[in-house]
Amino acid sequence: MSKRQIPDTLLLEERAGLALNAMKGMADEDYGGIPFFAANLMVEPAHLTHGDWDFGSSHGRMVDGMILARHMSGSTEGEDVERRYRENLLSFFKEDGLSYRQINPNYKWEPNANLIDQRAVILSLTTWFMATGDPKAKEAADRHVAALKRIAVKEREVWYYPASEYKEGGWPSANAVQLRLAPDPAAFCGRLIMPLLKYHEVTGNEDALELCRFFAALIVERSGVFNKDGSFNDALAYRSGHFHTRVGTLDALARFGVFTGDASLIAFVEKSYAWALTISTGFGWTPGDLKEQAYEHETCSLVDLISTGITLAKSGYTQYWGTVERFLRNHLAESQLLDLSWVKETDDRSRNVPGRITYTNVAERSRGAFAGYSAPNDFCCNVNHGRGHVNDLQLCCLGSGTRGLFMGWSNTVTESAGTVSVNLLLSRGSKWLDVDSYLPHEGKVTLHVHQDLKELQIRIPEWAGYTKVRFVREHEGERSEGGGMDPSRFVKGCFLLLGPARAGETITVTFPLSMRTTVETAVGQTFVTQWRGDDVVGISPEGENHPFYSGRKVYDKAPMREGDYRRPERELVW
User: Known InterPro entries for this protein (predicted)?
Assistant: First the structure.
């Protein structure tokens, strides 16, 4: 891979490579390679702890995340750990085809097939099979889908699960009562649609499609999860409007609407998505729910917003490309743990309890992880409301955060019916062209075209206007110029139409940067936010525990470095 001078700006594939360090580091080598679920980074020394999510859920998230991160970055780091995660994941299946949580000597839970876990399981098996064609993954997935269909309660027009956990003997589990988990349709059925649909698309599995059809009907027609105005039902039986499972369900429904050509379903999603944005910040912080966990943002929720926004944008709601880019550049990028100078760690092993807790090298092992619960201005959420300080890292957020990087990376440049679209103004290589993004330093994007293109278009941010948008095209000594004032240059509201492009052509697009201030509200708290283009460059009040946005440096000219972009021969499409 030849190197050249590229802008030293956000590069999602590099972030994915860093996430591999954390996914590798979470494995507990004293407990069969089972990953730790959570971390407390504010204590001295910091520690990692296990929990009841360690099995199907955590392993599914890690297998999926490591495959996607490796695909983006090309890194081989942690391949031995990933193999162990895959082996463990398969070992959790029982003869009935479901993935079961295992007995832990340090905790008093009973083995059960948790319905939240099953979503991560089929997600990872699908990614595993897509990436490798491994027949072991497909065999396990086919049995898993058959089991999910078999245990569903089937009524005339909807299917559902009557409890949060299934036991080998059937429904119900005593844990459902002990944990006060209602059979929430979004958490246990709605979110399953997304991986089940992709598994059907990849393999043609008809059981998976049938589950999608009846789960979608359950959510839209019968469940009451979403109110008529699109808002989330905040009743206790609906997990107080839990944001991650609501938006994850919207992501699933949007994908199913596209697959089936159901415009009404996509419109249903858009109405609720637009409402969700009204109680989130412009840079991507979301409440955890609408009640007890309102102050606890999960990276998982942000990634759901990113994924749903992408599907809606590709379906014609092009305004959401800008939403997605702001979320990627800001709260997702800030939520990745890169600076660990503030974390107090030790290499001592004497206090470790296998299967329960470790204090050893926590900072080193956590580098590249994503925030479990963050504040709008701080990595660690330590407010005087809700539950106060809880987990600083959660394994689900590490897997989701990595998937969020992948969703942004894989949709930066897309092709449809001969038209290549630069949807996100992030640096990225592709078989069609490379994107050099100089943002947020300069309002400048350069496209290096690799092959003849029938039609090329690039999204211009809404804050850039159109009157001062300019482009310069250079090819074999020829040079031409144009701008946003040229007739019929803008299509779909925000795309600058460049027309045909030739292999070897360089196209530089420039536009004025927007310097502005907004007041963002997060569950009654207000934050004065300074923007440079789509990047937050300052926030007040500043955070106290690894503050967000306070260390960002911007220059009049973008810094450059030697490098190149990853261009896989075959791209995974999620």
Answer: 6-hairpin_glycosidase_sf
